[in-house]
């Protein structure tokens, strides 16, 4: 399947909408192929020889320790080829020890080279239904730098200790050569494929989240599928246990790295305010639209964890939470206000360090952590980048989010285009000077319409009067 951030469209149907995807790329100035200069630099970087030392020997900044004897695995969507993360897990007394190997993008991309300059222009990888606009050239992101099975690959290995109460501590960082023993897929993995301590690590992290009052949401994904009788339908694919457990490893590592950087008084932190009262009110109306009982005294995080898994209405509500969120940003240590940087959804100090093939900022966070963990000064170019990255990441994330939203708009228009004239049940979730925001119950679509003498929470009926995949728009009017 071709992927966007939240929407999947079967490959057989992608060609039908190629023109729409091309228009979407043009509308949002999505980068195309990497320039020839960048691809040539990637070839040179991919051929750069490694200086490998044995465990126990002192290692310099650009040397890699031989860790090919460690049983690393990857766990991703079946079709993924840009593999950022591999893991090995063991018990050490009461601690779960996570060895988290992250693609060593810093080995291939050096400060000021053509790959680096282009990455700064892009910021992040942008996913669309018919492909992706990669942060880095394919030679690095899907080949030399990806932690695919086969020959040894360069990585930065974070060793994280997870205590019995779920607290985390960074216990070491090193450049290493690793070997991925198996590329596991979310759709087919079984408990027998995974380390024995894999579920225990996840359980500890989740228990600690509950104690912190974290509202971190495990997002569902949408699929657009052709109906047997013609037309399309929009449905949700809930995340399975393996995906949720896999996310715990990244969370644990990013929190442990954040604590280490904060103690060293450097770094780039991911910060986010809490969901404001207006958005919470809108989400409560949305929950009502899906027939979900949200007690007034229950927090958003507690409510999310109480919802039945695998039900379409749960997935629809979680997608609404994603749309209601916002305000996450990158903050350099020098600009921290208060005692510590804070990410409200995680309810902790937090960084992005585990997806450098897809996010520019992660490479710099990794390089800073490597330095402080090994008693070296953070390179000047890394410290300078921390003050410049927030704007570069804002631009990249903004484009990716707008493309993601537009892809969903396109999918909704495709799904609904053969239902023009039909009447749908809806609940008003919000009202402002642009009209009222409505949540359609089935299919789960958010839209705006005009309605007088109504309040948020009111149930109304609306008729679909237009659905245009070309403009990626749908139009409802109130009836009755």
UniProtKB/TrEMBL annotation:
Pfam families: RNase_II_C_S1, RNB. GO terms for molecular function: RNA binding; RNA nuclease activity. One of its GO terms (biological process) is mRNA catabolic process. Residues 64-375 form the RNB domain. GO terms for cellular component: cytosol. This is Putative ribonuclease. It comes from Ilumatobacter coccineus (strain NBRC 103263 / KCTC 29153 / YM16-304).
């Amino acid at each position: 399947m071709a992927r966007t951030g939240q929407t999947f469209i079967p490959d057989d149907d992608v060609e039908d909408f190629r023109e729409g995807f091309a228009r979407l790329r043009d509308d949002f100035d999505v980068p195309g192929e990497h320039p020839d200069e960048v691809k040539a630099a990637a070839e040179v970087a991919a051929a750069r020889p490694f200086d490998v030392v044995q465990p126990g020997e002192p290692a310099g900044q650009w040397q890699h320790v031989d860790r090919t004897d460690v049983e690393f695995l990857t766990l991703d969507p079946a079709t993924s080829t840009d593999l950022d993360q591999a893991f090995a897990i063991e018990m050490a007394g009461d601690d779960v020890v996570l060895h988290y190997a992250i693609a060593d993008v810093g080995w291939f991309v050096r400060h000021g080279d053509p790959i680096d300059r282009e990455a700064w222009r892009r910021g992040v990888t942008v996913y669309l239904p018919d492909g992706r606009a990669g942060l880095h050239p394919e030679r690095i992101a899907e080949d030399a730098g990806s932690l695919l099975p086969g020959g040894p690959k360069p990585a930065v290995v974070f060793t994280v200790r997870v205590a019995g109460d779920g607290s985390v501590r960074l216990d070491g960082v090193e450049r290493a050569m690793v070997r991925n023993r198996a590329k596991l897929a979310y759709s087919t993995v079984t408990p027998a494929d995974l380390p024995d301590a894999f579920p225990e690590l996840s359980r500890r992290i989740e228990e600690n989240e509950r104690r912190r009052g974290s509202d971190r949401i495990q997002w569902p994904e949408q699929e657009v599928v052709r109906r047997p009788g013609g037309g399309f339908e929009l449905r949700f694919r809930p995340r399975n246990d393996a995906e949720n457990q896999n996310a715990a490893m990244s969370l644990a590592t990013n929190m442990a790295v954040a604590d280490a950087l904060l103690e060293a008084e450097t770094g780039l932190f991911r910060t986010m305010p809490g969901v404001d009262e207006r958005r919470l009110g809108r989400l409560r109306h949305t929950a009502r639209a899906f027939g979900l009982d949200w007690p007034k005294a229950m927090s958003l995080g507690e409510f999310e964890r109480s919802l039945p898994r695998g039900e379409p209405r749960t997935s629809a509500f979680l997608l609404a939470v994603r749309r209601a969120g916002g305000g996450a940003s990158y903050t350099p240590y020098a600009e921290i206000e208060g005692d510590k940087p804070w990410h409200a959804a995680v309810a902790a100090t937090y960084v992005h360090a585990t997806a450098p093939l897809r996010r520019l900022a992660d490479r710099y966070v990794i390089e800073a952590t490597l330095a402080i963990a090994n008693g070296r000064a953070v390179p000047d170019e890394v410290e300078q980048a921390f003050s410049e990255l927030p704007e570069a990441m804002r631009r990249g994330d903004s484009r990716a989010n707008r493309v993601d939203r537009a892809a969903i708009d396109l999918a909704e228009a495709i799904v609904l285009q053969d239902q023009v004239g039909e009447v749908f049940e809806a609940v008003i979730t919000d009202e402002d000077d642009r009209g009222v925001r409505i949540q359609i119950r089935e299919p789960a679509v958010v839209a705006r319409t005009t309605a007088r003498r109504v309040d948020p929470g009111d149930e109304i009926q609306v008729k679909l009067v237009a659905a245009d995949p070309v403009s990626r728009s749908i139009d409802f009017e109130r009836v009755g």
